[in-house]
Structures are given as C-alpha cells and as structure tokens.
Amino acid sequence: MSDRKQEPGQTGTTIVPVILSGGSGTRLWPMSRASFPKQLWPLLSAQSLLQETALRARQVCFSPPVVVCNEEHRFLIAEQLREAGIESPKVLLEPVGRNSAPAIAAAALLVAEQDPQAILWLMAADAAITKPEALQDAMNRAVAGAEKGLVVTFGMKPTSPETGYGYIEVGQPIAGLEGISAVKAFREKPDAEQAELFVKSGDYLWNSGMFVFRADTLIREMEEHAPDVMEAVRAAFAARKGDLFFERLGIEEFKKVPDISIDYAVAERSSNVAVVPADLGWSDVGSWDALWDISKKDAEGNVAVGDVLIEDSHNSYVRSEKYLTAVAGVDDLVVVTTDDAVLVTHRDRAQDVKKIVDRLKKQKRPEAATHNRCYRPWGFYESLIQNDRFQVKRIVVQPGQKLSLQKHFHRAEHWIVVGGVALVTRDADNVLVRENESIYLPQGCVHRMENPGKIPLTLIEVQTGAYLGEDDIVRLEDTYNRA
C-alpha cells in the first residue's frame, strides 16, 4: 500500500506475502473438515480466515500474494480471494501435501524468477491477529533483518502457559538491528509444567510460524540444510504447468519430495535465524477453546454465533450453522451444530475433538472429511433426501458457469428449475429450461447444464437408479480441466 511506513534502507523493497493454505483443522470439527477446512470459514467476522489474512497482508505489502494450496481447494480459494478484492494473486498448486518446507521453497523459487532479493512474508491462512495496529512496526523490524540476510520469525509474547504451541527461546539482541534477537533454541510443544516454567522465565515466546526472509536467503538455507528437499522441489518446479489461472507443480516430481516442516528443515538447523518479539493478539485458532478465547463475549462470558438462545449459562461457545440451538444452565461448554452433526464438549477438553474425528475416520464415516454441501468450481450442491434407489439434491450454478459434459451408466436424472434459467445439453439437443419447468435425462444420455443468466441458477435434481455414487460420472469435456 502507498501509505506503508518506510524505514531507512527499505525504500523500494519488494515484499511478497506467501500464504500457506493447507491442513484440515480437525480440532474445529464439525465445521472444519478436509473438504472445507477452517481457513475457508468466517469464524471471527463476515470474512473467512483466508480473506482476513490476505487483506491484512495487503495493508502491509505492495505485491499481490502467492497462495500455496492443494488441488481440492483451488477454486474455493480463487473465488474467496476474488470476493475479497485481492487482485492478481498467484496460486501455486501442490499435487500432494508435503508439509511447509517444500511449499515455501516452491514459493521462493516462483518469486525469485522475478526478483531473487524480494522479501517473502510467510504466514498461515488460518491464524488470527487481533491487534493489527502493532503489525506494521513488527514487520518493519523483520524486514530490516531479512534485508541483512537473516531468516526472521515472529515470536508472540505468551499470555498463558499454552501447551498447544511450540516455543522460541530468545538469545542475545543482534547489534545494529533494533528489536531483533538471535534465536537460542526452538522448543517443542511442552507439557503443562514445562509451559509454566517457560512463561515464568520471561525468556520464551510462542512460535507463531510466521517468517520473513529474502527469496534467495531461503533457497540458500534450504540448499545447505535440506538439500534433498530443495533438489526435489526444483524438479517439481521445473516441471510445473499453467492450468487456467493456477501454477501446477509437477505431479510425479512433487510426490518424491520429502515431508518436512520449515522448522525442522531450516529454523532448527540454521545459525542464521532471528526473532522479533511481538504482541499482535495472535492465535492459531487451533481449537474451539482458542476461538472462544479471542471472540467477543457477552456479559456472562458467552459467545453466540448464528441462530442461538442461551439461558442462565456462562463462559460457553455456542454456534449454529443452520438449526436453532438452545442451551440452558450450562457453563464452560462448546456446542456447535451443523446440518449433519452436533458437537458438545467441555471447553477444557476441546483438544479431544481430534479424537472424535479419528474415530469417524476409522468407521469410514463421511462426516469425518466432507460436508453435506459440496462446493464445485461452478457453484455447489447438497443432498436433501437419500434412499436406496433415489436421491434429491439442490444444485446452485453461478452466472456464466457450467457443469462438465458428462454421462452416467447407472442413473437417470430429472431437473426442475426453481430459480433462474438453465441451458441444458441433452445428446444432440440444446434446451432452455425456465423457472417452474423441468427436463428428463435418461440413463446414459450425454448432458450438460449451463447458467446463461445474470442470477444464480437453482434447481432440484431427482436421481433414480441402482447406483447413485458421485463416481458414476464420465466427463467428456470440462471447462475447469478436471479429470
């Protein structure tokens, strides 16, 4: 932004936000699931955590962000960035998850093509900062260190003996760089007793996972401390291909990349790492208890989101995504309802939500990973009724979008338009289907649905047949390059 404060030596510096959007946030189940994880949800405001992160970065940096994400979320992320007004982002696709170090290395290679000395501000898409007014000063200090060739991390001043975060042991101040100290050691997530000692000593900070460094510095550090990772990432980067408005890393090459975090690959091995102590109101929003902690509360300490009624209850987090949810006479609870699941837990046991997800996975329950509403590049669909030989769905197609040209071997479909207008391809025919009209698609016919209008197209789909699974789709042509 043009109003960014420039410190001496920083004039003309290119700062590129790098946003990592991976992980599934299972401790925030039933909202956060692999198909639609926590960074895509509006957990603290009307905007998603991803949108908040990108907008926060825009207030500090001049350059469009680089977002590293997986295949499944690419269209969701692109749409959310568009909705937030983020212009010209670069979206780098990981064919498979390989942790943070390979993702950061690929982003550094991408930025270095244009400017090897550009400074990267690395951050997760799913963290919160509740004191953004303190961010600019911390960034200026970090950038000053990065310009000197340091890998700079932000250490958050702890407000409690938190066992869910890693810690940074702060070393001596670095001469000539105000507000920057050497990192003495990184510490793993401690137990409660160790966390108490860390906080009381005053020598430890929470590890935020945010880093600031020059692109060439990160590449050099990776080559020195994790050469096998860097070599494999270079191969995947060299094999990358453009796909619509995405950059897709080489699939087979990236599968060979070791799985390792930036902490293990560089931060804990390098003597070139420094820390900026900061008080940004930072949280990784890693659990419902953490979300309660940073959310606005009523006079009784409750957080209520959605269609919620709370009676004679205290210090609870109650959220409803669809149905009226009422609680009475309870304290210190988390209650979350979605259209297919309800969670009730004590706030002190919020970390145990991950155990529930693990059990759901073992039972192969779809609720472990997917929501009833499934998003696609053209819009979304959700199941309304499902039985052995029929299923009823609501489908919403955004203006100007269209589904793939496809056919089914095991089912027939009946589409009833309830809002907007559909242009339907049925074998050799093109049929305009208006509101309150319907069309039948027999088993095996080649068909496609398109929204030629200016408002969302909404229709009810009735499927009938012996098998109704989503894998009974043979795509013959697809605008979005899906298999």
UniProtKB/TrEMBL annotation:
Residues 364-478 form the Mannose-6-phosphate isomerase type II C-terminal domain. It catalyses: alpha-D-mannose 1-phosphate + GTP + H(+) = GDP-alpha-D-mannose + diphosphate. Keywords: GTP-binding, Isomerase, Nucleotide-binding, Nucleotidyltransferase, Transferase. One of its GO terms (molecular function) is mannose-1-phosphate guanylyltransferase (GTP) activity. Residues 17-300 form the Nucleotidyl transferase domain. The keyword NADP does not apply. This is mannose-1-phosphate guanylyltransferase.
